[in-house]
Amino acid sequence: xxxxxxxxxxxxxxxxxxxxxxxxxxxxxxxxxxxxxxxxxxxxxxxxxxxxxxxxxxxxxxxxxxxxxxxxxxxxxxxxxxxxxxxxxxxxxxxxxxxxxxxxxxxxxxxxxxxxxxxxxxxxxxxxxxxxxxxxxxxxxxxxxxxxxxxxxxxxxxxxxxxxxxxxxxxxxxxxxxxxxxxxxxxxxxxxxxxxxxxxxxxxxxxxxxxxxxxxxxxxxxxxxxxxxxxxxxxxxxxxxxxxxxxxxxxxxxxxxxxxxxxxxxxxxxxxxxxxxxxxxxxxxxxxxxxxxxxxxxxxxxxxxxxxxxxxxxxxxxxxxxxxxxxxxxxxxxxxxxxxxxxxxxxxxxxxxxxxxxxxxxxxxxxxxxxxxxxxxxxxxxxxxxxxxxxxxxxxxxxxxxxxxxxxxxxxxxxxxxxxxxxxxxxxxxxxxxxxxxxxxxxxxxxxxxxxxxxxxxxxxxxxxxxxxxxxxxxxxxxxxxxxxxxxxx
Length: 490
Ligand code: HEM
Description:
Layout (H helix, E strand, L loop, with lengths): L3 H10 L13 E10 L18 E10 L14 E9 L2 E8 L12 H8 L10 H10 L4 H7 L14 E2 L4 E4 L5 E10 L8 H10 L3 H11 L5 E9 L1 H6 L19 E10 L4 H6 L12 E3 L3 H17 L59 H16 L7 H13 L2 H15 L5 H14 L1 H11 L17 H6 L10
Antiparallel strand pairs: 1-2, 1-9, 2-3, 3-4, 5-7, 6-7, 6-10, 7-8, 8-9
Helix pairs in contact: 2-3, 3-13, 4-11, 12-14, 13-14
The protein binds protoporphyrin IX containing FE.
């Protein structure tokens, strides 16, 4: 007779898999802590950021973006750098990448963009024509393409790299004032990279190179650590900034917006069970704590929706109750029941009850603040409305920071590595139109850069893409009476 335990095990085994993440499916993770080392009470009233010495527990998940869950750790790809901080006011997630900029600033492009970086619908192969077709039609991606095809596109393991918010956030104070912020996590041992040949070799010899290195570093007591910094920009600085404060294809020059230390981030504990503690982790930029808010950046605004939405698909409606995702403080809201509810809110009213009225902690810094400078906020809101509207224009401004990387930041060896890395991929494009168009994008960055790539793949040299002048990117300032200035040079 077949034993019930056998049938039960078979039935459970048949259901072991859950959907992998639609992007960032490949990853590695660990636990640790974030410690506040500097008092930031002059820029935010969030108590954690004034509590020097305070430590909060954290979980991190690093990832590649385009490959499936079993793909190689050393693929040329941006890396995800997602951190869940368990604070006394709920979870604060940093859902960052290892690059300070991103491919898009218009969120409607995201699914199109990702589809072209994944598999061809017919051949089920990665497709160089799709890949470069998209990028050549959307030249605001060129800054990220410069970084991606430098050796930073193949980091040496998951823990030897920096992390960046990329997006602009807002940190508020009780009086309703705020500064724009960007967070940086800088690896204390530096950003280590692999050259293209080594990354390719490792992808074949040891696809788990990154997962293994992270696990072994923690197991042997070599705890990976990062110093956390914040860049800040006042609304008035944003109004004068050379670039659009909502544009995540740009960096904020450190010379103008210095890195200010915030704390330490340390990984000192491996998961006991990868699936429960890392695969089931659900990060979202919408998981914030009081005084920390998203900016109006439309890509960030779209992400606020997309992550909880995909978690409900991937993990189920009660994904927030899973131990790795649950906040350390009790939850009180109106969400009830659904599949797999295992944290009950007891007999608390499940509606706005007058029989057992609820008490709320008063909101500070946002709509209920008392000492707000209304005129200042109204003026800035008008500015942000214009900044948001003009985000899609491609102009000369889009080529300045990539050009600075090519001409000023990189040395000869880094320039040559870029040409080699990019040519190795780009030479696989079959479409003559796509090839020529992408070369015009590089020529708009720098003619020599484009010529060197053209020579490397045996293509005729091309003229630069014709782009609008920088002034077209900032029309909204003139319309609103904000002066266009060139103060913010790199
Ligand atoms: C419109 C733009 C974007 C959309 C719609 C989007 C959407 C998504 C989705 C659906 C996932 C899968 C999440 C899961 O299944 O758990 C994901 C993962 C991720 N995304 Fe994005 N993304 C966008 C842009 C970005 C940007 C700009 C960054 C970084 C600055 C970023 C960082 C990450 C990271 C780190 C993960 C992996 C999280 C983890 O390890 O679980 N994404 N994204």
